[in-house]
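May I ask you to comment on the folded chain given beneath this request?
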Amino acid sequence: MRSFKVRPDAKGRITLGKLSVGVSSFTVTKIQNRIILEPNVEIPAREKWLFDNKTALSQVKKGLEDSAASRTKSRGSFTQFVDDNE
């Protein structure tokens, strides 16, 4: 755990710089005299179903692991099945 000192500007703002790379928001919790920032990453609503469906999520993770380990086989292009109107 790293500690460092930051100072608020005249408007009370603190810049987090590189600590906030890839973060879309923070949850702020104040406990006595401590302030805890918990980073959040938001996903599009259309992708939320995957994180709600544990079976589908585990299958996607396994597929990504298999792909990274070269345990997959190309089945060619599936573009013939794409409906551009959807």
